[in-house]
Design brief:
The protein is mainly α. The protein has one domain. The protein is built from one helix and two strands.
Amino acid sequence: MWHHLSGRKSLVIGMTVDHVQGMSEAESRPFMEKLTAHTTRAENVYHHDWEVGDLVIWDNCGTMHRATPYDPTSGRMMHRTVLLGTESIA
């Protein structure tokens, strides 16, 4: 659990999580499967169909995201921007 400076709490999860701190692997796996199933339901997922000139921005600390295969000749260009003052996960 990530406690933000504002007091807000967030779960830090991803598809490669090994276990939940404070839980055994046997407890963690079913919990993570249930949580992943919930967070990746169709109504919780945004899928972008790219077109020339598109710009997509997301909060990397607050969004689970995954790249999908793309045509390597498509001329894809990516830039990463980090805002000053962004709090670290601690």
